[in-house]
Design brief:
There is one protein chain. The chain is an alpha+beta fold. The chain has one domain (9-279): 2,3-Dihydroxybiphenyl 1,2-Dioxygenase, domain 1. The protein is 18% helix and 35% strand. Strand 6 (100-103) and strand 7 form a beta hairpin. The two termini are 19 Å apart.
Length: 281
Amino acid sequence: MFHTTEILHVESVKLLVLNMERALEFYHHILGLHAHEVSKKHALLSANATETLIELIEDAHATPMGMTQGLYHVALKVGEESELASIIKRLIDMRYPITGASDHGVSEAIYLDDPDGHGLEIYWDKPRDLWPLENEKITMYTKALDVSSVMRTYIPKQTYQMPESTILGHLHLHVPDLSAAKSFYVDVLGFQVVMYYGNQALFIADNGYHHHIGLNTWQGDAPLCETRQIGLKSYILSVPKSEYLPLLKRLKDAHYQLIEDDVLPYVIDPLNQKLYFHFMA
């Protein structure tokens, strides 16, 4: 509903890891994502065996993740509460640490870190008519997740794998300045402001979603992530056909150079990450 070809949204990310074998042990064996085109230094991860959600690249000599701007978390969205329950049970069974569990009003989520320190959120959206509103606008909050309630929806299965319904629900980034981030992600890319969280976070979306991208300044004046430092290296934005020409004009007017690549065109975003555009036909 909120991640179709008619809606602006992030469809996949590329993460740099130190050790591919260790990363696949987590993403494939523990989380249950399908792994494709696997080599010593590269792998594609999906939930339905076709659509890539996460691309992994290995650099054994990369600088470990530090306190930088860039990735806060990649959020994988499942379709049902029972699917979130299944993932929680899997992580508990595998003794993999869950770092947080929250009820955000619009969704219920758990948080964890992959072996390289990349933040992950796994969540399901509550029915749209249950999303909290304030002055007729979507609002979100953070309360402790009632894990017992979620686990009551658990449906036992013979084998575990990441639900095929899983998509990349949103991307949350650390940025040095919210105003500058808004200028790019809203004014140039075309997302709409959903809500501010004080003066430290901004949530933006297309077509009435609670957020396709989260932006926060919680890392203060930390530096940008280096090219050969563990972290988010690029991401792909799905762009509706109707936004093709308007987006090109906004990029040109804002002096962002569209660079042609072998697969997709891209720009360098304000965080020095490659932002690829998948223009819908």
